[in-house]
Amino acid sequence: MNQIRIILILTIAFSAACKDEDTFKTDFVGFEDLELEDQSYWYGSDGSGDFAIGNKIFSNNFYSDWNTWSGFAYSNIINSLYYNESAKYAAYPSGGANESNNYVVGRQFEKILIEFEEVEEQRLVQIANCTYSALAIKYGYGFAKKFGGRDGSDPDWFKLTITGFDHANGITGSIDIFLADFRYEDDVNDYILGTWRYIDLTSLGLVKRLEFDLSSSDAGTPLYFCLDNLKGRIHY
Fold first, then answer.
1. Among candidates 50, 104, 52, 54, which has minimal Cα distance to 76?
2. How many domains does the chain fold into?
3. How many DSSP H helices and E strands does the chain contain?
4. Tell me, what's the pLDDT at 23?
5. pLDDT-flagged residues of the chain (< 70)
6. Burial class (CB within 10 angstroms; exposed 0-12, middle 13-18, buried 19+) of 72
7. CA 152, CA 137: separation in Å to the nearest integer?
């Protein structure tokens, strides 16, 4: 009798899982299909603007008068050591997530957005520091402050906030990711994120748009981050 009950439970669970799988399709973006030469990047200088992959549209605004951009660029630059122009397009962990080549870089001047052609349930993404931001925080380059100050005790922080919006422009939720955190009582716990970090996005639910906002305890911190392997699913 117990064996029959177990078989029935497994059968019901399997049937429910199959039924659930039949109600959505996975939309995964790893950026490997974007065409780039080795050690290069695209930042919108051709004026093409936003770029779409699958169900996702990544914002890009290029300002020709200043030869700069905001929103998203894409890259395969490997540079974790040098604070130069290429560092603005480099993931601090050296390369894409899970040893992949391509990834995107977000830069905040105007809003950084990902919009969805169809409402999409969010699942997972990987986030990392951009080399330009990480080295500025570590050494105090340019207008940026060295985090922790002279004695390492200043409670500095650098944060990415991801906010979901539904089809009616209502907020579905938000998630904070600290890219650097020097607020610990014991300075040995202070850190600058040096790896690709998995972020669970399920709390955002069904969204029509994601907004990315960078903030820091220091006004001079360069506002960049890197993103790879964004996964969601479209219900139908």
1. 104
2. 1
3. 2, 14
4. 84
5. 1-22
6. buried
7. 12
3-class secondary structure per residue, 163-176: EEECCCCCEEEEEE
- Radius of gyration of the chain from its Cα atoms, rounded to whole angstroms: 20
Residue 176 belongs to a domain with what CATH number? 2.60.120.1350
What pLDDT digit, counting tens, does each position of 118-138 carry?
999 999 999 999 999 999 999
Sort strands 224-235 and 24-29 into parallel, antiparallel or unpaired. antiparallel
> What is the rounded distance in angstroms from the CA atom of residue 138 to the CA atom of residue 170?
37
SS3 94: coil
Q: Catalogue the E-assigned strands of the chain.
A: 24-29, 41-42, 51-53, 56-58, 60-63, 68-75, 103-107, 112-128, 157-165, 171-181, 191-192, 197-200, 206-216, 224-235
Q: Does residue 18 lie within any of the structural domains? A: no
- The two structure tokens encoding residue 81: 């050591």
Domain extent, residue 107, equals 26-235
